[in-house]
Amino acid sequence: MTKKINNNRRQFLQNSAFGAAALTAFPGMLFAQSSPLRTKATPSFKADVEIEFVSRDVYVPVLKTGRETKVQKYYAKLLKGPKKTLVELKGNYLGPIINYVKGQKVRIYYKNMMSEPSIIHWHGLHVPQDSDGHPMYTLETGQSHIYEFEVMNNAGTSFYHSHSHNLTAEQVYKGLAGLITVTDDEEQKLDLPRGEYDLPFVIQDRTFDEQNQLKYLHGMHGRMNGFLGESILVNGLPNVEFSVKSRAYRFRAVNGSNSRIYKLGWDDGTPLTAIGTDAHLLPKPETRPYLMLAPGERIDLWLDFSGRPVGSELVMYSLPYAGAMPPKMEEQRLGKESSGGGMGMGGGMMGMMSPSVGQGDKFAIATFKVTEKVSDSPKLPKTLGRFERLTERDVDNKHKPIPIGISMKPMRPMLNGKSFSMNRVLDFEKVELGSIKKIKIFHDHGPMKMKEGEKMDKGMDMSGGGGMGMMGGGMGGGMMMSMAHPIHLHGQQFQILSREIEGMRQEEYKTVKDGFLDSGWKDTVLVMPGEEIVVAKPFQDYKGLFLYHCHNLEHEDLGMMRQFYIS
Prior knowledge:
Structural class: mainly beta
Shape: globular
Radius of gyration: 23 Å
Helix content: 10-25%
Largest sheet: 7 strands, mixed
Number of strands: 32
CATH architecture of the largest domain: Sandwich
Distance between the termini: 33 Å
CATH superfamily of the largest domain: Cupredoxins -  blue copper proteins
Low-confidence stretches: 1-25, 27-34, 340-354, 458-477
């Protein structure tokens, strides 16, 4: 696997970045060195924050008893900047929390000291190509790369993780991830929970063997379905209990799992209130009976324990839902539930689940215990700041949307009928700098419904290998493999213009539909089987190659990833 990564990168450098083919495919790309890696700081870039990052293979005490667990871990040292820029999470495998302020200029020195190649992606941050963690920048053991960027994001929550192609899923699973927060002047004017009342809530699932070592899947069948772990970890630890006061908190929920989708809800039916999604505050708070959280997504939760007596407990669950997996697997799972397993387990050992707990089953995530009564608490704001709403009037391709067609051919998860290629883009994947594009994300298993006057963007490749609607999908093929996919677009956030569902799975869809937050800025969106989602995405500020892919990390590594070329 390591050799494959190295060869991919060398082939890209030799045949693309510096060859005649690259000049044809990517005429605007300028690499001044014989390698795209930046090994020297740019003198004209005056950094406000400088951080030294290193990734290592280490052992840490993840579980409370027994042997330490071998993981891959990020370590960081603050060289320049505010002391609160880095906050360590003690006793687990997650990297430190990085706290940025909008407008800061950041320089990060990253060195890979692991035994295999890797690179860091700052998921949610709007940064240049050479700071985005594209696999072309993958570092071999001992190599370094310098990231330089200005924090252009508004206040919100992002995270960082490994993004080395073919190794992303396993490296994230082994620990290469961490939380990012950004604040700005507008957020500082709001009376939001801060300090000890503003907490991380990174949710992941893992499986351990009898020696406390991580177990990961390697078979093709398991990778096609995506990894589902037997234990739930929050902030890198199992069986987590939060001691809270009788007041409001901000919990920054991040789905850091490889493929598990969470339906967040309280055990007593209390609704959940969100104040932010995917690296941006919402226009105003939104309250829902539950909230869906797919891999790669973030939700800033306003959890208010005011009025609850000392000693009371609330348990956050992933509530039962249906429709995320292929029909045959759903039938088997629901049959298991009716016979007394799976979704009916409810309480049990909090955080420790049966291997049979599937996608959509019910289980506990964390317990919140009220341990102190206080009288002061911020009130939920009615509005959360300025918000620019995009509509179809803002896009320049209203009648020719860019397609992202999801297909799951046997052993070949693809987008737009193609697997990932580091040195190729299709015609419709080339977009103009400064444009705002309409993008249509859909399951490519049958003829696609088009609105009046609409046609797909130019350059659609209909030649073999995949669908784009009319290439032999239908119920006899891809539809039987249809499952939910979290689609992540690198670069700037987008806004959802519409979400429609048609077909055979309406009853299942009812179990998830009230949990989608579509009113804010997003960079990752969960596309359920039969759904068609239309988004408006700006392509501003930076030229170059920016990925889009399924954030089911097993699917990403199997090739369900493409890239836009912005010129």
